[in-house]
Design a protein that fits this description.
The protein is 16% helix and 46% strand.
Length: 259
């Protein structure tokens, strides 16, 4: 292991066991205003503590292209679970950022569990539920800034970015927790979120992930995107269409336990 990777590994070890400190950098007031308004639009008067989304999923991986059922679950404190039932078998992924240290694992059709590298557990676990992603921007320990008015896939958007502050101000760690959210300029509903993942053995190499949100529908007064697409390195890997959404069903911590 070279010096750069050794230093990065040490920094990761330190922050994943340390508590977030009061913000050393102030969030941008305009970005906070946009995030606050987006949160109100998303939730209405509903306080959401957990969400369960079920529907159909198309999974694309190389020459594999198959369609099946999907169930996604998330809690506001920062944990998620995805279960896919496909012709090739069952697949699952769990991310629990609320654990100390954060933990995650995935399994393929062979049922073998594989740990998710720690540096890939530092962005948004509930990537499929933008309400929780926006709530993170309003949480203590996060810095949110306004990037500007832009066009995203022919839609006028307001671009905000957020990252988590820890006891160290290391720019690498800031980068690992960064995510960008694009709000429709007219409705302030999130239309996209981007972040980076990295090879298990190289946290310095970025692999872009893009989540696209569409087909928003009202559920108990809240707005939920019923169509979500996930792109990895500019290629579509998941196309999700939901049939049902349930809130506040009392999901337990064991739902997000990592074996």
């Amino acid at each position: 292991m070279d010096f750069r990777r050794a230093s990065l590994a040490l920094c990761l070890s330190l922050i994943l066991t340390a508590s977030a400190t009061p913000q050393q950098v102030a969030s941008d007031p305009l970005a906070l205003t946009l995030a606050s308004k987006a949160y109100v639009v998303l939730t209405g008067s509903l306080v959401v503590t957990d969400a369960t989304l079920t529907g159909t999923a198309r999974r694309i991986a190389g020459s594999d292209d198959e369609t099946g059922a999907v169930t996604l679950k998330a809690i506001a404190t920062g944990a998620s679970r995805m279960d896919l039932s496909l012709p090739s078998g069952l697949r699952s992924e769990v991310q629990n950022a609320s654990a100390a240290p954060p933990a995650g694992a995935w399994s393929g059709s062979d049922g073998v569990s594989h740990s998710i590298a720690q540096h890939n557990l530092l962005t948004e676990p509930a990537w499929f539920f933008p309400t929780f992603a926006i709530a993170r921007a309003l949480s203590t320990g996060y810095v949110v800034t306004y990037v500007g008015h832009e066009t995203w896939n022919s839609v006028a958007v307001e671009h905000i970015t957020l990252y988590q502050q820890f006891s160290t101000s290391d720019a690498i760690l800031q980068h690992l927790t960064q995510r960008d959210i694009y709000l429709d300029s007219s409705t302030l509903l999130p239309v996209a979120m981007t972040f980076n993942i990295h090879p298990d053995n190289d946290a310095s190499l970025d692999i872009p992930v893009e989540i696209r949100f569409s087909d928003y529908r009202a559920v108990n007064g809240a707005q939920v995107p019923f169509h979500i697409q996930k792109y990895l390195n500019n290629g579509l890997i998941l196309d999700l269409q939901f049939q049902s959404v349930a809130f506040n069903t009392g999901l337990s911590a064991s739902t997000f336990s990592v074996q």
